[in-house]
Structures are given as C-alpha cells and as structure tokens.
Design brief:
The protein is of the alpha/beta class and about 950 residues long. About 40% of the residues lie in helices and about 15% in strands. The strands form four sheets. It has a 19-stranded parallel β-sheet that branches. A five-stranded parallel β-sheet has the order 2-3-4-1-5, with helices on both faces. Strands 6-8-7 form a three-stranded antiparallel β-sheet. InterPro entries: Apaf_helical, Disease_R_plants, LRR_dom_sf, LRR_R13L4/SHOC2-like, NB-ARC, P-loop_NTPase, RX-like_CC, Rx_N.
Length: about 950
C-alpha cells in the first residue's frame, strides 16, 4: 500500500486470492472479480504516475479524481477483508454451529456478489472520468517539462543562491570549517590531488547558502570555477551546459543553443578542465546515477582542484566523497537571524513578544530556512491590529500543515523536492508520521510495527522478513535527513538510539500533504480542514480538551483503519469501539481505561480486522478480555502497567510482537505462538516453566528477560532454549539484585546474527564472555554491546577492539587494570562508554578509535600530586580524530586537593581546545 494509490496494491492481491476455488464463488461472481481486478490494475498505474507529480502541478479535477479512486480502493478492500473474515471463521465445535457456519458462508458469498457489482460500477464511472479529465495527458505534460515548477513559478531554491550578505548569520564559522576540510590534505591524499567534499544535511539547513559563500571566498584561488544546481528531476545535459557556461562565459555563450549529447558534453568538459586548477560546486545531488554521470566529466589532475557537492542523503554523500555533515545554527546565531529579520536586532524586540519569540524559535529548531520563513510571516503579522494575537496564531500553526501563507508555501515547495524524490512506498511510510504530535519522540520499532499492521510493507520475494524490510525503510529515511535521532542524552550510546523526531518544517509539510490526500485526520489544537463528506481513514487525537466542530463530527468514522490517542486526547468524543468495524490499528497511551471508561475495551474483541493493539500506561488494572482469541489477525500486542494476560492469548497464532510489563505471569502454552519475533519483558521468576517453551519460538529476533535471582536448577534449561534460537539479533538481560551471568558467558554461543547484547548493571560477568574472547571475528553483526564485569583486563579490552562491526560499546566494571587503546582497534566504533566503579586509568593512543564521536568516561582518578600522582593529567583525547562530545566524571582519591582537580580539568579542556573538531566537553566530579 502507498499513499498515492491508497489500498490498491494489497487490494489487487486479495482480489486474486478471492478468485481462487477455495472461496467457492459462483462463476459469474468470479468473472466480475477478475474484471474488477483488471480495471483497478490500470487505475493503479495512473494513480502512481499522478502521485509522482507535486500536488499543485496538476489541475483540481485530476487531484479530485485521484482522491476518489483512492477512496474506492479503501472501500473495496474493506469489503473483501470483511468477506474473508466471515468465511475463514470456522466457528466452534458442534453440529449446530457447523450448520450455522455453512448458512453464514452462503450469505457472505451472496453479499459480496452484490458489493462487487457496486464497486465495479464505481470503477467504470472513475474510468470514464479519467478519460474525461484527461488525467494521463496532465501527467505527460508535467513529465515533458511543460508544467514543471521551475518553469511555472521559479525554482524555490534560487533565493538561497542570492541572499543578502546581511542575512548570512552564523555563516563565517561554517565557512571556515568547510574551507579547512577542502584545503587540508586527507590521509593518503596530497593537496595537489583532486579532492571531493560532500556537504550533507536536511533540506532548509543552509547547504546551498554555505556552498555559495565558500565558492565566493575561494573562486579567485582557482583558474576557473562553476556553481551549478541539479534539478529535482535531473537533466544532466543541461547541468553540463550550465557548467561550461559558468567556467567560460565567453567561449560557451551559445552552448545552450547547441544540440550536443551527453558524451560530447563530457568530452568537452574533460578537455577544458584537463590541465586547469578548477573549483566546482554541484548543488543538490538527488541520486547516484546523476552523480556518476557528472563525475565522468570532472577529470582527475594534479593541479589541486576541488569539488563540493551538496545532498540531503547521507548514503549518497558517502559515495560522493568525504562527508561534511552540516550542523544547525547555534542558539545565538538563530536569535540574531530571527530578531534581525523582524526588528533589526534582538534588543529592539518588545518585551511582550519575548516569551512567544522563544517558543517560536524553539519550534524552528535552529534551521535557517524555518527561521527566515517564520520571520517573514511575523513581519507581516506586526502590521496587523493585534500583533501579539497574530504571533500566538503563528506559533500554534507551526508544524500543523494549516498555514497557507505564501512564505510557508514556498518553504514547503523546497522541502517537497525531497519528498517527491522518494519511492512511493517510502512516501507512504513517511506520511504516516503525521499521526504523531508535534515534538513527539517516535520509537523506531513501534513505528515499523504500525507500518506492518497497515500493510505498507510488502515482501519483495519469498522469505523476506517484514520487520527487516521496515527497518531498511526507516534507515533510508534517516539517510535522507528526513527523520533524525531525538536530542542526545549524555550517556546514551550513539548506536542505541530508539527514539527519533521530525523537524517542525518537515512535519508541517507532511501534515499539509496528509490533509490534501485525506491520509490522516489529525484532531488537535489546530483542527485539520476536511470536507464534510470525507471518510476518515486514520484518526489521531492530540488534545485532551478537544471539542469537535460540525465539520469534524461529520467525518464518517465507520471505515477508520487506525486510531491513535495521545494522553487521553478527545477520548470521550469517540463512539464505541464497536463502531469501527474495519479498524486495523488501535494505539492508546496515557489514558484512564478503568471500568466505566467511555472507551470500553471489552468491545476490542469484536474488531476482527485488528492487527495492532497498544495500551501504554493506560491505567487498565485488570485482565484483558478472554475473547481476545477472536482477533485472529492480531500481529502486535503491547501492554504496560497492571494489565494481565488471559490464558486465551496462546490462540493468537499470527502474533509477531508481544510486549508485557515486568512481573506478568505467562499462561501455559506460550510455545504455541511460533510466529513470535519479539518478546519482552519476560519475568523468569513469575513464569519459571516458560524456559522449556521458549525453545519452540525459533523465529524470535528480540528477547528481553528479567529475574530477581536465577535458580541454578533452571540454568541448563535456559541455556538449551537460548541455543535453539538461531535468529536472535537483540538479547537484553536484567536482574533486580546482583546476579552472575558466567553460565551464559561460558556455555552459550550466539549466532552470527546477533547485533545487540545488553545486560543490566546488576548482571555481572567475571570477565569478558568467552564467546567474545575466543574469536571476536565470528561476531560479524554485533554493533551494540553493553555489559557489566567484575574486572576489565587489558587483554579483554583488546579482544573487544577486534569486534569487526562494533559501533557502540558500553562497559561497566568494578575494577580494571591500567588500560591502553591502540591504533587498529575499534575501527568502526562511534560511541565509547567506560565506567569503572573503583577508578579508571586510561590512555588513548594516536590513531585509536578513529571514528569515535562520543566518549563517556567515569570515574577518572585524580590523585594527590604530593604523592607523585597526576602531574601531567592526559588521557589522549586529542588523539581521537572524529571526536564530537566528551563526558567525563572525575573522582577524588584520598588526599586530592582542589588544585589537583583544577589541573585535571585544565588538561582536559586543553585537549578539547587543541582538537581540530573542538568537541563539546562536559566535566563532573564524584567522590570515593
């Protein structure tokens, strides 16, 4: 399923299944089903082409046609699903119910015959409108460049090329950093060789502005220069002609009038650049094929030539050259830009607008495009009768997708260039993020499970794992700088991010697009504008004080597929759950669902289409209904708090993801749930017999175990079961009291699939487990390791350093030797945390941890200099070449005086100061 085609993809598959003999349809009905499938296949092709065109580049009639066909696909899929549920329900034992089942199936077949006729009639009417509105011609005109945005209304990115110097706030430091990267010789590369730097970051961050500023500064140092932009729909021949014209405006003044093909242009560029020292900026690389073609024309020479390419995609940046990640503005520069645009300077801001200004700046997220856009809106607001009221309105509208101010629309056009470059399946997954409130931390795995439940993820070939595919979708959105990790929390390993967010600019775009496509109805502080006739397909309630307008109450909710309720928002406004006959996703958090609540969970067992049920901190202190076994399609069940599981849970044979609160007693028969892929948080003490059943869950990828104290007699059972789980990728083990894990370290050998292994600080190995020490090279997927030890030895640290793909290492130990990290160890590590309870003595040698960005150290011992200790406090931070953030706990030993602590702090600050990255340094003190 994708947003452009509605439910068409999954519907076509189901229509194919429906025509099979097992459903016993009459010959005439089968014929109608097949005819409908062929008609809809043609419409799917047209819908996909329409979806690739920006919304404002097609006529209103074409957009209305596409919306109606999407609605038709949803309605048709609901009909087919309802029929399949009725036919597949075999009922209970007993002759009477079997006979009743036969009559029920006959009626279901009669009903679907009538409904298929109705859908076929609607499909034929839509086909006639497609011809009448000339839908295919409208798409063809866009693809041929007749109605392309750059031709119709100007390329919205052009403003970034020609900004007034006064607006380039905070650009000097960014320019200096980029120039330094351009001019410094990289390892194995002389300054005379061609050097390529790729500037990467989300849309609106100022990549074009920065590249233009650097180009302006350096152009006199080169024989020839060029600055060219790549269209969102690349035209490589035009790019080459633009490049030649920029390189020599006299020689190539008529280049755009010449009919040269790509090969001729590449040859011409090669000849022109072969012996010259050149500097070329290629702005906005959208894909690798475009870059490959451009790179063919940029000849290698030993004249010290330089290339900058900008992109929004980190995976593309890595293939272009040396990635240079562009940061947001610092808070001071953000304020200077914001207040300068509106008032001329910060001190001219009226006192009554200071508080609301801070709120607006926070929403802009230090992104230059957002600041400039919102500032332009506020300049106009200042001219109105009640500026304060207008500023409050603007603040509320940010991120809502409802502000249609011309400046905001222009910002959306810039951001939408990246959106329309996404494959259709990724556009759908991204658009779904609009269900979340502004500023919400989105859990990675939760979102992927919801995508699966909605049918957004389809296997590309037999045997494909849906979660793995969804994870690759998520990573693609990260690479394209659309979603990003939530604010870093000191001490959280780099590779362990589980919560992500979307910048307010991108959320505003997604909400705007979602409204136009009737993809999600968001009911919050800003009520989404919808047609009174609209059928709500997905509801997201954000505001607990929500009162629906007449327009909102006219939404047809009987065909809602997804409901997300945040913090009790608007829960009393919903009808009974039994009204949502085709609901697939029900996600409720922080709501009071005790007996007597308006939303009676007893009705959830009649939601036969439900795939996803999440009750997070919902104050539902009783057992789930026993009738939950009727939810035959349920894939995800997540409950927290005091919720208890009924014994019938073991009948949910399609269940893939189960998360229960610690202390939950698992019923007998859990081994029957052989589709389970994720299982947490299992309390071994409460369910001691589960150890034997665990061995049957051979599809498990993720497992989280808890215990108060491991019964020695059960160790062998758990080891045998764990050894039978060959798909385990993520294993987390926690204990309430101190507990030894040596039995696991010595007698369990994980498969090569393991990518994350985490233990709580109370779960101790004596030394690093033997399955790491013996042959680290076998653990080819282990990227995230978090363990606690009684002792960390130098030889064990070296073994850890040989793990081939480790990205994040988090170590706690009671005591350690004096430790040294050397070059050639931890080659891929990004985050290093080491905390020794006794005291830590550690030195980083030059070339050690070459990719580490985050270091967390505790507790570094500061000894009494009167006893000869710490005269030269140096851990070698300056030797970590990629360092961005350092978090250090210093520990006083007996006799340590204030001057010793200050000397240690001064040494650390000096190391950070002389480091080329000037990493952020946070120092705290602790005592023995």
């Amino acid at each position: 399923m994708d947003s452009a085609t509605g439910a068409m993809g999954s519907l076509l598959l189901k229509l194919g299944e429906l025509a099979m003999d097992e459903y016993n349809l009459q010959k005439g009905v089968k014929k109608n089903v097949e005819a409908l499938r062929r008609e809809l296949e043609s419409m799917q092709v047209a819908l996909r082409k329409v979806g690739d065109v920006p919304y404002d580049q097609l006529g209103e009639e074409v957009n209305l046609w596409a919306r109606d066909v999407r609605e038709l696909s949803y309605d048709a899929e609901d009909v087919v699903d309802s029929f399949m549920v009725r036919v597949d329900d075999q009922g209970s034992k007993g002759m009477v119910k079997k006979v009743a089942g036969r009559f029920g199936k006959a009626k279901a077949r009669h009903d679907i015959a009538d409904e298929i006729k109705d859908i076929m009639e609607r499909a034929r009417e839509a086909a006639a409108r497609r011809d009448r509105y000339k839908v295919d011609d409208a798409v063809a005109r866009f693809n041929n460049g007749v109605t392309r945005p750059a031709a119709a209304a100007g390329d919205p990115r052009l403003y970034g090329l020609y900004r007034n110097n006064a607006e380039l706030v905070g650009i000097d430091e960014a320019c200096d950093d980029l120039i330094k990267a351009l001019t410094m010789g990289a390892e194995g590369l002389s300054n005379q060789q061609l050097k390529v730097i790729s500037v990467v970051g989300l849309g609106g961050l100022g990549k074009t502005t920065l590249a233009r500023a650097v180009h302006k500064r350096l152009k006199r140092q080169f024989e020839c220069t060029a600055f060219v932009s790549v269209p969102s729909t690349p035209n490589i021949e035009k790019v080459f002609k633009d490049m030649l014209l920029e390189l020599d405006k006299t020689k190539y003044k008529d280049i755009h009038n010449l009919i040269w093909d790509e090969r001729q242009l590449i040859d011409e560029l090669g000849d022109f650049l072969s012996n010259k020292r050149y500097f070329i900026v290629i702005d906005d690389i959208w894909d690798i094929p475009s870059w490959t073609a451009i790179r063919c024309a940029l000849v290698e020479n030993s004249a010290g030539s330089r290339i900058i390419a900008t992109t929004r995609d980190f995976s593309i940046a890595e293939q272009i050259g040396i990635p240079h990640k562009l940061k947001t503005l610092n808070p001071e520069s953000s304020k200077k830009l914001f207040y300068g645009r509106i008032f001329g300077s910060e001190d001219k801001c009226p006192m009554h607008l200071v508080e609301i200004s801070e709120m607006i700046l926070n929403k802009c997220g230090n992104a230059p495009l957002a600041i400039v856009t919102i500032a332009s809106v506020l300049v106009a607001a200042n001219k109105m009768e009640n500026p304060t009221n207008e500023w409050n309105k603007v603040c509320t509208l940010i991120g809502s997708g409802q502000d249609n101010n011309q400046h905001v629309q222009n910002m959306r056009k810039i951001l939408s260039l990246g959106y329309y470059r996404l494959p259709s399946h990724l556009r759908t997954c991204l658009l779904y993020i609009s269900i979340f409130p502004e500023g919400y931390n989105i859990e990675r795995f939760r979102l992927i499970r919801m995508w699966i439940a909605e049918g957004f993820i389809k296997p590309e070939k037999d045997g494909d794992n849906l979660f793995k595919l969804g994870d690759s979708y998520f990573n693609e959105l990260i690479n394209r700088s659309i979603i990003q990790p939530s604010d870093y929390d000191y001490g959280v390993p780099y590779a362990s991010y589980e919560s992500y967010c979307v910048h307010h600019m991108n959320l505003d775009l997604l909400r705007s697009l979602s409204t136009k496509e009737n993809f999600v109805n968001v009911l919050g502080d800003i009520l989404q504008q919808t047609s009174p006739a609209s059928k709500a397909r997905r509801l997201s309630l954000h505001n607990s004080k929500l009162e629906l307008t007449t327009t909102q109450t006219n939404l047809k909710m009987s065909q809602v597929r997804s409901i997300s309720i945040f913090s009790g928002s608007g829960i009393s406004l919903l009808p009974s759950l039994s009204s949502f006959q085709v609901l697939r996703v029900l996600d409720i958090e922080n709501c009071d669902l005790k007996e007597g609540c308006h939303l009676d969970l007893r009705h959830v067992c009649n939601l036969f289409h439900l795939r996803y049920l999440r009750l997070y901190e919902c104050n539902y202190d009783c057992e789930l209904p026993k009738e939950i076994e009727k939810l035959k399609f349920l894939q995800t069940l997540i409950v927290t708090g005091e919720v208890r599981l009924p014994s019938t849970i073991v009948e949910l044979k399609r269940l893939m993801f189960l998360q229960v609160p610690e202390g939950t007693i698992l019923p007998e028969g859990m081994g029957n749930l052989t589709s389970l892929e994720e299982l947490s948080s299992i309390d071994i003490g409460q369910s001691p017999n589960f150890g034997k059943e665990l061995r049957n869950l051979t599809k498990l990828r993720e497992l989280e175990l808890w215990w108060d104290e491991m019964d020695k007699s059960l160790e062998e059972v758990w080891i045998e079961s764990l050894c039978n789980l060959h798909e385990i990728q993520n294993l987390r083990i926690f204990a309430v009291g101190d507990s030894s894990l040596d039995f696991l370290g010595e007698r369990w050998m994980p498969s090569g699939r393991l990518w994350r292994f985490v233990t709580g600080v109370s779960c101790l190995f004596t030394i690093v487990p033997v399955w790491i020490r013996k042959n680290p090279s076998l653990l080819t997927n282990l990227t995230d390791l978090n363990i606690s030890l009684q002792q960390l030895r130098q030889e064990d640290l070296k073994a850890l350093g040989r793990l081939p793909t480790l990205l994040s290492l988090d170590l706690d130990a009671d005591k350690s030797e004096c430790l040294l990290t050397c070059a050639g160890e931890f080659c891929w590590l990004r985050s290093f945390r080491l905390c020794i309870k006794d005291s830590l003595q550690l030195t980083f040698q030059l070339g050690a941890l070459p990719r580490v960005e985050i270091v967390h150290l505790g507790h570094l011992s500061v000894q009494d200099t009167r006893d000869g200790g710490n005269v030269d406090f140096d851990v070698g931070l300056e030797n970590l070449l990629s360092l961005e953030l350092v978090y250090v706990y210093l520990r006083r030993t007996t006799g340590t005086i204030d001057s010793d602590m200050e000397s240690a702090k001064s040494a650390l600050r000096h190391a950070a100061q002389i480091h080329p990255n000037h990493p952020t340094l946070v120092i705290k003190e602790s005592s023995l």
